[in-house]
Fold ATP phosphoribosyltransferase.
Amino acid sequence: MLTLALPKGRLAEESARILKDKGWLDSLPPSDSKELTFVSKDKRLRLLFVRSQDVCTYVEECSADAGIVGWDIIKEGKYDLISPVDLKIGECRLSLASFPDFDLYAKRSKVRVATKYPELTKEYFFSKGISCEVIKLYGSIELAPIVGLSDCIVDLVSTGGTLKANGLKEIESILFSTARLVCNRSSFYAKQDELRSLIESLEN
């Protein structure tokens, strides 16, 4: 049996539909279930439903053989995983945003940035040669510049509707993200037949 970690919510639902279409699931997990695991009737696949930020940890620590997670999370955590398939779902972008009159290159000692992605944010500002102070938040990132906590934010953007509703503007895209299949390196060899079969079916 393969164990696959999925991020709770819409991405898990989309992933489960793909797995069903590819013959890995005979039925979809109940949408109203509170259970954190789901096993296919043929015992071929077990799903774990975890927070998106935890998917890579479950896979890296061998509690799951593989997982489906956004490229943004993979890059932020610098996990030691194999990422063989881009599922081309969950499209979004990690972007710098602020008020329309924000000048990234204005003379200041450092830029204060609120984000859930401190490592990618530091890399971005370092590449620009700009000093930054990163303020890590876990939600409502758009609020930070409104109340003066930060000069700008780095956050995931899909349609841009939330930014616009709060008077903010997308300034520059830092990273484009889609959901990827990631595999534990040990499992990739110990269960290579099963994982190769999964990879091939998701690629086609």
